[in-house]
Amino acid sequence: MNPLVIAGKSYNSRLLVGTGKYKDFDETRQAVEASGAEIVTVAIRRTNIGQDPKQPSLLDALPPSKFTYLPNTAGCYTAEDAIRTLRLARELLDGHDLVKLEVLGDPDTLYPNVSETLKAAEVLVKDGFKVMVYTSDDPIMAKQLEEAGCVAIMPLASLIGSGMGILNPWNLQIIIDRIQVPVIVDAGVGTASDATIAMELGCDAVLMNTAIAGAQNPVLMASAMKKAVEAGREAFLAGRMPKKVYQASPSSPTRGLIGS
Fold it and tell me: What pLDDT sits at residue 207?
């Protein structure tokens, strides 16, 4: 299968995973390795990647030499906060410019504030960042973010951490059909079948955190998600049979039957 290409770099895995909500960095490492993910997201406001030299660092559990870090702006509610946070991340990670932008609208739903998101995206792109952007499943906003220079559009499937799965596949399909950069489902995946459906729709990848970290066995769920994304991608490339309403079709030949 063709690799996932983001901002000119190729990745074999189409599963991106978060690094939060695990019991410790050891469990984080085990789950990420089981997922096969090459890109890992890091909430700069919540995870130590060198801000506190006295505390354990995620950089030791998941060395940047093996994984592509994707600093994100989780917990930011204004464009200014998001911009400031990603500039800090660039300093901490020695000039790293691939980032995930998310600007939230309220603390209850964590729904994106799309106007602030677009404002931040325009500034960050001009500042030299390669912006992967979390947004709503609004096709118009998705196109505006692409036109602003974002390298990947990341619409939600449902609310962050809800595990509700894909609630509006029709909007996702419109985005997939109209956007030229990678479309990555971000937020709402609850189990392996959700990831498979996203990939069968034609999404380029899936990003998740809570679905793995919140499972009873995170490492086993990470392994399941790896297989789900791969199966969904293969099914999309294979092209499913057409649906036939009220029309059966025998699986075996109807001619040349034995004894006929």
Answer: 96
